[in-house]
Design brief:
The protein is an alpha+beta fold. It contains seven helices and ten strands.
Length: 214
Protein backbone atom coordinates (compact mmCIF):
# COMPACT_ATOMS: atom_id res chain seq x y z
CA UNK A 1 0.00 0.00 0.00
CA UNK A 2 1.38 3.41 -0.91
CA UNK A 3 2.10 5.80 1.95
CA UNK A 4 1.98 8.88 -0.27
CA UNK A 5 -0.30 11.45 1.29
CA UNK A 6 -0.59 9.52 4.55
CA UNK A 7 -1.91 11.65 7.41
CA UNK A 8 0.60 9.91 9.68
CA UNK A 9 3.75 10.59 7.62
CA UNK A 10 4.95 13.60 9.58
CA UNK A 11 6.97 14.72 12.58
CA UNK A 12 4.87 14.98 15.73
CA UNK A 13 5.17 17.82 18.28
CA UNK A 14 7.52 17.06 21.14
CA UNK A 15 5.74 15.92 24.28
CA UNK A 16 2.46 15.10 22.51
CA UNK A 17 1.25 11.50 22.87
CA UNK A 18 -2.12 12.00 21.13
CA UNK A 19 -1.16 13.11 17.64
CA UNK A 20 -4.51 13.11 15.83
CA UNK A 21 -8.22 13.09 16.66
CA UNK A 22 -11.13 11.88 14.55
CA UNK A 23 -11.64 9.73 11.49
CA UNK A 24 -12.89 6.17 11.37
CA UNK A 25 -11.49 2.75 12.14
CA UNK A 26 -11.07 1.88 8.49
CA UNK A 27 -8.69 -1.11 8.24
CA UNK A 28 -6.56 0.54 5.56
CA UNK A 29 -6.19 3.71 7.63
CA UNK A 30 -5.39 1.73 10.79
CA UNK A 31 -2.75 -0.31 8.96
CA UNK A 32 -1.22 2.89 7.56
CA UNK A 33 -1.13 4.29 11.10
CA UNK A 34 0.82 1.30 12.40
CA UNK A 35 3.21 1.63 9.47
CA UNK A 36 4.03 5.11 10.81
CA UNK A 37 4.21 4.18 14.50
CA UNK A 38 0.69 5.39 15.37
CA UNK A 39 -2.17 3.37 16.89
CA UNK A 40 -5.83 4.00 17.84
CA UNK A 41 -6.74 3.90 21.53
CA UNK A 42 -10.02 5.34 22.83
CA UNK A 43 -13.38 4.45 24.32
CA UNK A 44 -16.81 4.75 22.76
CA UNK A 45 -17.51 8.04 24.52
CA UNK A 46 -14.75 9.81 22.54
CA UNK A 47 -13.79 10.30 18.90
CA UNK A 48 -11.00 8.12 17.57
CA UNK A 49 -7.75 9.09 19.32
CA UNK A 50 -4.50 8.32 17.50
CA UNK A 51 -1.43 7.85 19.72
CA UNK A 52 2.31 7.95 19.20
CA UNK A 53 3.76 8.06 22.73
CA UNK A 54 7.06 9.71 23.55
CA UNK A 55 8.94 7.83 24.90
CA UNK A 56 7.84 4.52 23.39
CA UNK A 57 8.07 1.13 25.10
CA UNK A 58 9.60 -1.82 23.25
CA UNK A 59 10.87 -5.26 24.21
CA UNK A 60 14.27 -5.84 22.55
CA UNK A 61 13.95 -9.20 20.85
CA UNK A 62 17.65 -9.95 21.21
CA UNK A 63 17.52 -9.64 25.00
CA UNK A 64 14.10 -10.77 26.24
CA UNK A 65 14.37 -11.61 29.94
CA UNK A 66 12.49 -14.67 31.19
CA UNK A 67 12.26 -14.71 35.00
CA UNK A 68 13.50 -17.93 36.60
CA UNK A 69 10.11 -18.96 37.96
CA UNK A 70 8.55 -18.46 34.53
CA UNK A 71 11.28 -20.62 32.98
CA UNK A 72 10.10 -23.45 35.24
CA UNK A 73 6.50 -22.73 34.26
CA UNK A 74 7.36 -22.92 30.56
CA UNK A 75 8.91 -26.36 31.09
CA UNK A 76 5.73 -27.72 32.67
CA UNK A 77 3.91 -30.16 30.38
CA UNK A 78 0.41 -29.42 29.18
CA UNK A 79 0.79 -26.03 27.50
CA UNK A 80 -0.54 -25.95 23.94
CA UNK A 81 0.49 -22.86 21.98
CA UNK A 82 -1.12 -22.11 18.62
CA UNK A 83 -1.09 -19.19 16.18
CA UNK A 84 -4.08 -17.55 14.51
CA UNK A 85 -6.52 -20.31 15.41
CA UNK A 86 -9.01 -18.11 17.33
CA UNK A 87 -8.20 -14.44 16.83
CA UNK A 88 -11.58 -12.98 17.75
CA UNK A 89 -11.85 -15.11 20.88
CA UNK A 90 -8.45 -13.85 22.05
CA UNK A 91 -9.38 -10.25 21.35
CA UNK A 92 -12.69 -10.53 23.19
CA UNK A 93 -11.02 -12.32 26.11
CA UNK A 94 -8.67 -9.34 26.47
CA UNK A 95 -11.83 -7.27 27.06
CA UNK A 96 -13.20 -9.43 29.88
CA UNK A 97 -13.54 -8.18 33.45
CA UNK A 98 -11.60 -4.93 33.18
CA UNK A 99 -12.71 -2.84 36.19
CA UNK A 100 -11.31 0.36 34.67
CA UNK A 101 -13.27 0.02 31.44
CA UNK A 102 -12.07 -1.01 28.01
CA UNK A 103 -11.05 0.28 24.62
CA UNK A 104 -11.90 -3.04 22.96
CA UNK A 105 -15.42 -2.09 21.87
CA UNK A 106 -17.31 -3.46 18.88
CA UNK A 107 -15.81 -1.02 16.35
CA UNK A 108 -12.35 -2.16 17.45
CA UNK A 109 -13.31 -5.83 17.19
CA UNK A 110 -14.76 -5.41 13.70
CA UNK A 111 -11.72 -3.50 12.45
CA UNK A 112 -9.08 -5.84 13.85
CA UNK A 113 -10.94 -8.99 12.83
CA UNK A 114 -10.95 -7.62 9.29
CA UNK A 115 -7.22 -6.89 9.58
CA UNK A 116 -6.78 -10.48 10.74
CA UNK A 117 -8.79 -11.79 7.80
CA UNK A 118 -6.48 -9.79 5.51
CA UNK A 119 -3.39 -11.30 7.15
CA UNK A 120 -2.21 -8.23 9.11
CA UNK A 121 -3.46 -8.88 12.67
CA UNK A 122 -2.44 -12.04 14.52
CA UNK A 123 -3.05 -13.91 17.72
CA UNK A 124 -1.18 -16.43 19.76
CA UNK A 125 -3.33 -18.76 21.86
CA UNK A 126 -2.39 -20.71 24.98
CA UNK A 127 -4.51 -23.70 25.97
CA UNK A 128 -4.45 -26.35 28.66
CA UNK A 129 -6.55 -29.49 28.24
CA UNK A 130 -8.11 -27.87 25.20
CA UNK A 131 -9.32 -24.80 27.13
CA UNK A 132 -8.25 -21.32 26.06
CA UNK A 133 -6.46 -19.95 29.13
CA UNK A 134 -4.33 -17.15 27.72
CA UNK A 135 -3.34 -15.27 24.63
CA UNK A 136 -2.03 -12.13 23.00
CA UNK A 137 -2.87 -10.27 19.79
CA UNK A 138 -1.43 -7.47 17.70
CA UNK A 139 -0.62 -6.12 14.26
CA UNK A 140 2.36 -7.05 12.08
CA UNK A 141 3.76 -4.81 9.36
CA UNK A 142 6.96 -6.15 7.80
CA UNK A 143 9.36 -6.82 10.67
CA UNK A 144 7.41 -4.75 13.23
CA UNK A 145 4.87 -6.32 15.59
CA UNK A 146 2.67 -4.05 17.68
CA UNK A 147 1.33 -6.05 20.63
CA UNK A 148 -2.08 -4.71 21.61
CA UNK A 149 -3.29 -6.71 24.59
CA UNK A 150 -3.03 -10.06 26.36
CA UNK A 151 -5.12 -12.01 28.86
CA UNK A 152 -4.99 -14.96 31.20
CA UNK A 153 -7.57 -17.25 32.77
CA UNK A 154 -4.90 -19.34 34.47
CA UNK A 155 -1.82 -18.15 36.31
CA UNK A 156 1.10 -17.24 34.04
CA UNK A 157 -0.79 -18.03 30.81
CA UNK A 158 -0.43 -14.48 29.46
CA UNK A 159 3.28 -14.54 30.33
CA UNK A 160 3.67 -17.79 28.41
CA UNK A 161 1.95 -16.08 25.47
CA UNK A 162 4.29 -13.08 25.60
CA UNK A 163 7.47 -15.16 25.79
CA UNK A 164 6.36 -17.46 22.99
CA UNK A 165 5.43 -14.43 20.88
CA UNK A 166 8.87 -12.90 21.37
CA UNK A 167 10.55 -16.18 20.45
CA UNK A 168 8.48 -16.49 17.28
CA UNK A 169 9.25 -12.93 16.22
CA UNK A 170 12.98 -13.36 16.79
CA UNK A 171 13.08 -16.64 14.88
CA UNK A 172 11.24 -15.12 11.93
CA UNK A 173 13.43 -12.06 11.58
CA UNK A 174 11.30 -9.37 13.20
CA UNK A 175 13.24 -6.46 14.68
CA UNK A 176 10.62 -4.43 16.61
CA UNK A 177 8.23 -5.63 19.33
CA UNK A 178 6.22 -2.58 20.30
CA UNK A 179 4.28 -2.64 23.59
CA UNK A 180 3.38 1.08 23.59
CA UNK A 181 3.74 1.94 27.30
CA UNK A 182 6.18 0.76 29.96
CA UNK A 183 4.69 -1.01 32.98
CA UNK A 184 6.41 -2.74 35.93
CA UNK A 185 5.05 -6.05 34.61
CA UNK A 186 6.59 -5.58 31.15
CA UNK A 187 9.83 -4.27 32.65
CA UNK A 188 10.41 -7.74 34.10
CA UNK A 189 10.74 -9.03 30.55
CA UNK A 190 13.36 -6.48 29.55
CA UNK A 191 10.98 -3.80 28.28
CA UNK A 192 12.64 -0.40 27.84
CA UNK A 193 11.62 3.09 26.79
CA UNK A 194 13.23 4.79 23.82
CA UNK A 195 12.73 8.28 22.37
CA UNK A 196 9.91 8.49 19.88
CA UNK A 197 12.19 9.56 17.03
CA UNK A 198 14.44 6.56 17.66
CA UNK A 199 11.39 4.31 17.66
CA UNK A 200 10.11 5.79 14.39
CA UNK A 201 13.50 5.30 12.75
CA UNK A 202 13.41 1.62 13.76
CA UNK A 203 9.87 1.26 12.45
CA UNK A 204 10.75 2.82 9.10
CA UNK A 205 13.46 0.19 8.69
CA UNK A 206 11.44 -2.71 10.14
CA UNK A 207 8.35 -2.32 7.95
CA UNK A 208 10.49 -2.85 4.84
CA UNK A 209 11.71 -6.26 5.99
CA UNK A 210 10.34 -9.17 3.90
CA UNK A 211 9.29 -11.35 6.84
CA UNK A 212 6.02 -12.98 7.77
CA UNK A 213 4.38 -13.73 11.11
CA UNK A 214 2.33 -16.75 10.04
Amino acid sequence: MSTAGSPFARTWPEGEDIVAVGGHLDPELVLDAYRHGVFPFYDEAHPVLWWCPDPRAVIPLESVHVPRRLQRTLRRPGWEVTVDTDFEAVMRACDDRRPDGTWIHEDMVRCYVELHDRGHAHSLEVRRAGRLVGGIYGVAVGGMFAAESKFHRERDASKVALVQLARRLRERGFTVLDVQFLTPHLERFGCVEIPRETYLERVREAVRRPVAFA
